[in-house]
Amino acid sequence: MEASGTSNMKFAMNGCIQIGTLDGANVEIREEVGEENFFLFGAQAHEIAGLRKERADGKFVPDERFEEVKEFVRSGAFGSYNYDDLIGSLEGNECFGRADYFLVGKDFPSYIECQEKVDEAYRDQKRWTKMSILNTAGSYKFSSDRTIHEYAKDIWNIEAVEIA
């Protein structure tokens, strides 16, 4: 088991260009690799409470494409597994279901739009390669070497020992 976000940090260190919402480790990753090298979609943190209230008040109107995706999952196209709990977590209100607590339905249109930008960037090999290199270069902050050096200096108050 690893701490939240470390997988995304490893992805960046290995040149992966990420698409994600602005939460958790993605905030730091985007700051380090540069906004232009990270595909951002979805609601911003300051919008979440209002969007959850809107959802709870029944004012949220789901995107038709998202409804189609849920129906496709329900259809059994992915096998005989019962997806009721998954789909139920994306529906309902505060009294029924989880009311899409993580706002997947709200973020879906933004995700589709962002994925189109990913596709466009991928078709431009020069741009994609540059973005990948800059993800690796910008991820130095997540290096265990940097972390250990910083902990040694700032937390443990120890100095490096030279080995002859």
TrEMBL record:
GO BP annotations, alphabetical order: glycogen catabolic process
InterPro entries registered for this protein in UniProt: Glyco_trans_35, Pyridoxal_P_attach_site
Enzyme nomenclature, EC number: 2.4.1.1
Catalytic activity: [(1->4)-alpha-D-glucosyl](n) + phosphate = [(1->4)-alpha-D-glucosyl](n-1) + alpha-D-glucose 1-phosphate
Keyword terms of this UniProt record: Carbohydrate metabolism, Glycosyltransferase, Pyridoxal phosphate, Transferase
Cofactor(s) the record lists: pyridoxal 5'-phosphate
Gene Ontology CC entries for this record: cytoplasm
MF term (GO), any: glycogen phosphorylase activity
Family the UniProt entry places it in: Belongs to the glycogen phosphorylase family.
Function noted in UniProt: Allosteric enzyme that catalyzes the rate-limiting step in glycogen catabolism, the phosphorolytic cleavage of glycogen to produce glucose-1-phosphate, and plays a central role in maintaining cellular and organismal glucose homeostasis.
Protein's name according to its UniProt entry: Alpha-1,4 glucan phosphorylase
Source organism of this protein record: Solanum pinnatisectum
